[in-house]
Amino acid sequence: MVSRVDERPPKITPNVLNGTECGRIKSPDVSLIGRRVVHDEHFGTIRYVGGLPGSTCQWLGVDWDNPSRGRHDGNYRGVQYFHASTATSGSFVRPEKVSLGTSLEEALVYRYVLCAECQLSASLNPSETSSVDKDRADPRRMLFQPTDSPGRLSALMGASLDPDSLEYCGMSNESERPIRIELFTTPANSQDPVQHRSCGPQGAEAVLKYLRTATFTLVPVYRALRGLPSPEKASLWPQLGGTLGHYLPNLTELDLSGCLVSRWKEVAEIGIQLPWLRSLNLSSNHLRLPLFLASPSGGAETGDAEQTLRVKYDLDTHPNDEKLFSQAFPNVCCLVLVRSLFLDWPGLLRIIKWMPSLKSLTVAYNQLGDLPTNLDVDTVHAFRRLVELDLTATGTNELGYLFSILGPSTVLDTLLLSQNPIAAFPELPVSPEAVHSDGPFAPSIWFQALTTLNMKSTAFTNWHPIKQLLRLHKLEQLTFSDCPVLEDLTIETARQELIARLPHVSCINRIQVCPDERRGAELDYLKRYGAIWRSSGGAPTGTGPGLVDNKNVITMSSDFAQEHPVFVKLCSKWGVPDDGESKEEWKESEGT
């Protein structure tokens, strides 16, 4: 354990988690509608800006993410000023009571440069704590020790630095009980016994130049500091705005999930400073795309319509800024937009065109519906450059057009379609020559690089999708469960069916298939369907239109052959099942 005793007065550091000066609302106007705000680490969306009866001040109508933070649905004294998402998530607040958030630059210093004492003292704002808590939150009265998690420290706060006092936790006096808190900070900083030369903005360049991944999940970041022509300055950032690239020469992954970013223009202003950025996570944000109106409504008679538009769209970005978007993400190859409010296919197709290097796209848990038809050539090419596509829980229903766009791709490796109401699986095309020679195992000319496919919780009622997967010879991993076709089977039997029906798939439902498990599944499959095969006219030997392989000549009805395309291969591998024959007898006769 490393202890510090520093007799300097505690530094005053802004609490980034409640917003900083750059997020202060100075002149409330209609452009704030749709913006995100933070108060006491709770997030909300501004849906109304204006006056209220009996008041001469401007008020903000806020729809809080946590419904318990509000009081009503936007109705005040019989007038519906805005529509909250629930009956209790709305409230009116004064502009000075909330903040738009903090800048990315200040969040970088707060999270990755500040020492543990300053970070903790900032998060425990003395003005909001009791006198006892103020004393305990004094950074000079804390112990710090590294934890098992990289980049984290464990802070013990107590009324004394005496180890005996800190270790004794059974006292009735609550003020003497130590509190353990984990902080995200640089472990090296915690080793510095007294000096704080590298703590704060003065240490930004030395620390941030090595940063490759930056994560700000649920931190109220809402934009970067403004650069030229009117650059901003912030107390936690060593230079003026517009200098992210200088301090982050190695940053390739940026996670802004669950932040307060509400306009794509602000994302682009970050991206333009970091052209080497490769991975961008913007999940769980209320991001609005620019909507360029010929004559934006501003009159009182159309105020309600404009207010509704502003919640969903950015009406303040100029059309000339479209060039900024197309230049801001030249090397972004991985984009994550899980649970992104307002995301739809037209908007997503627009975003994709801004990212010429995009290889991995995750848009799970957005109600997109089916891919629009008649895509332009550039969009089709963008989809066929993807290596990974995650459409989990997007409301996808029809696969025909989607597969016609993705199928010809020679690079698509992973396709995730789980939790969608998909009931029909398209026929995968094969070359005529392959059909004649390989039958149901003929390789498809589509999805030739696909190795991973997820189709959990879909609406398939038969085995047709699984039979089509026999044509995907590169397929290695399949997730297929919670589907109607499996509902009458136990979990164990369903897994055996999948293993036996897909001889080339090595991982099913995230569990590797070992040789012994495959052997047992295939033997059980033959036993399960052997009687049906015989009753439908199947026989071990025969003449005429039989199915022939290297070891066996068997006959079967066309219906059985269509329903069980792997049966003949399994007979070749394990022998033809006789009436009443047991698995033990098959094992003994293996190879005969």
Automatic annotation (TrEMBL):
This is Tubulin-specific chaperone E. SUPFAM superfamilies: Cap-Gly domain, RNI-like. It comes from the Eukaryota. Signal peptide: none annotated. GO terms for cellular component: cytoplasm. Gene3D superfamilies: CAP Gly-rich-like domain, Ribonuclease Inhibitor. Pfam families: CAP_GLY (PF01302), LRR_6 (PF13516). Residues 50-94 form the CAP-Gly domain. The lineage of its organism: Eukaryota, Metazoa, Spiralia, Lophotrochozoa, Platyhelminthes. Belongs to the TBCE family. Its main location: cytoplasm. It is found in: Cytoplasm. Supercomplex made of cofactors A to E. Cofactors A and D function by capturing and stabilizing tubulin in a quasi-native conformation. Cofactor E binds to the cofactor D-tubulin complex; interaction with cofactor C then causes the release of tubulin polypeptides that are committed to the native state. Keywords: Chaperone, Cytoplasm, Leucine-rich repeat, Repeat.
